[in-house]
Design brief:
By secondary structure, this protein is an alpha+beta fold. The chain has one domain: Roll (Nuclear Transport Factor 2, Chain: A), CATH 3.10.450. Helices cover 38% and strands 45% of the residues. The protein contains four helices and six strands; from the N terminus they run αααββαββββ. The chain has a six-stranded mixed beta sheet with strand order 2-1-6-5-4-3. A hairpin with a 2-residue loop joins strand 1 and strand 2. 15% of the residues are buried.
């Protein structure tokens, strides 16, 4: 009985130890709010891509953004040019899973999607994990990187 009581007391002390960092409710709420902002922005981005709305995307894409496709990499201006010209038309991104990790002023979003796109005049459907990296700049989230990783299974 005494051994159980001592063990219980040690457990309480360990859980309440100031050396173990605990997230406050405010911190948890802030992270959740930031995650929701990025998720909403990502969904809006897919809509703008489907609409080929290069003007809205221009405001979202960071000046130094990079884009990684199956066939190579593009700069911000190249990506916007391809979207505007219809070289790649992101017709529909069916989002199957989404997760966001916020680290300071950087957010890393992972989307598992089924993408229907028109590339070089041919409609293609591919399963991807899309990694989106957002950075906060002057209080707004900007897309710094968009990378497509094709999945081998649907």
């Amino acid at each position: 009985m005494n051994l159980t009581l001592v063990g219980f007391c040690l457990l309480i002390v360990a859980v309440q130890s100031p050396s173990i960092p605990q997230k406050s409710l405010d911190q948890a709420a802030a992270t959740t709010t930031a995650q929701q902002e990025v998720i909403s922005l990502s969904k809006q981005k897919w809509q703008w891509m489907a609409e080929r709305n290069a003007e809205a995307l221009s405001g979202l894409f960071h000046e130094d953004a990079v884009f990684v496709h199956m066939g190579g990499t593009m700069s911000r201006s190249q990506e916007l040019g391809v979207i505007k010209s219809g070289g790649i038309h992101y017709k529909q991104a069916e989002i199957q899973e989404v997760s966001v990790k916020v680290i300071g002023t950087t957010a890393i979003l992972l989307n598992r999607i089924r993408l229907i796109a028109v590339v070089g005049g041919n409609e293609v459907t591919n399963p991807f994990v899309v990694t989106e990296v957002y950075v906060q700049q002057n209080g707004a989230w900007k897309l710094g990187s968009l990378s497509f990783t094709r999945l081998l299974t649907p």
